[in-house]
Amino acid sequence: MNLLIYHGKDELLEDLAEFILKIGNDAIEESGRFNFVLTGGSSPKTLYQQLSTKYKDQLDWEKVFFFFGDERNVSATDKDYNGLMAAESLLQPLGIKDDHIFYVNTSLSPVEAAAAYQTAINLHFNGAQPSFDLILLGMGDDAHTASLFPDTEILESSEVGVKAVFVEKLNTYRISMTAGLINNATNIAFLVFGKSKADAVKNVIESEEENTTLYPAQLIRPENGHVTWFLDQEAAALLNT
Fold first, then answer.
1. Domain 2-232 belongs in CATH node 3.40.50.1360
2. pLDDT for 241
């Protein structure tokens, strides 16, 4: 695990953008494509806007394939749909072709949507075990990441795939990559900032005893990949480092 702490959000996002570009360019040089999993929520919006403007000429975007680590069970036109924010801030400005974007089809039931998404991923990897070049993750102040929320059934899954999960405290379904699928990635980057995340960061990174039911982000521990945390000082305030 690599822990990077920044004075402010601007410096953090600049380094994270350069991190993404390096991994992307290396992947394209090695395999001819960059398989990139996006995170939702509001935290990455500025990052996506910067990638589509300031950094748009520093990667061959025609060779990038975009996926989503999780999705809300709402219409694709709903403001809370992760794919919509990414489309407006990153994918449309870059002119990404439709066949390079893997949206979650929320017109299906959550279980059907998860199964369809897993099938699409498996086809993209030609039946081989899916391994993304980079998965970008956020983390909530309850230590959830993707839609791996505390006390949810998906935390017990040993599958390498995509599942529907009912989040009781939100009274809704989500569609999410499992920890097993996330942990197959070559690179995983957490983007976390703000003082409201400090307790969660402390518990996930420095807890003496593992408790993945309470702190699901602790599940993200790939055997063969690399995890990098991009934190601002507020989010890292309680760490002993």
1. yes
2. 73
Distance from the first to the final alpha carbon of the chain: 13
**Element housing 105 (H / E):** none
- pLDDT tens track for 208-238: 889 999 999 999 999 899 999 999 999 999 9
For strand 134-137 and strand 34-38, is the pairing parallel, antiparallel, or unpaired? parallel
Asked if 205 and 5 touch (Cβ cutoff 8 Å), the reply is no
Query: What is the residue-wise DSSP string for 145-171?
Result: BTTB-TT-GGGG---SSEEEEEEGGGT
Q: Which of 191, 199, 188 is closest to 225 using CA atoms?
A: 188
Contacts of 65 (CB under 8 A, 6+ apart): 33, 34, 35, 36, 100, 101, 102, 124
Residues contacting 213, CB < 8 A, separation 6+? 150, 151, 155
Contact by Cβ (8 Å): 57, 101: no
Kindly report, residue by residue over 130-153, the tens digit of the pLDDT.
Answer: 999 999 999 999 999 999 999 999
Residue holding tokens 């990638």?
A: 51
157 pLDDT band, cuts 50/70/90, is very high
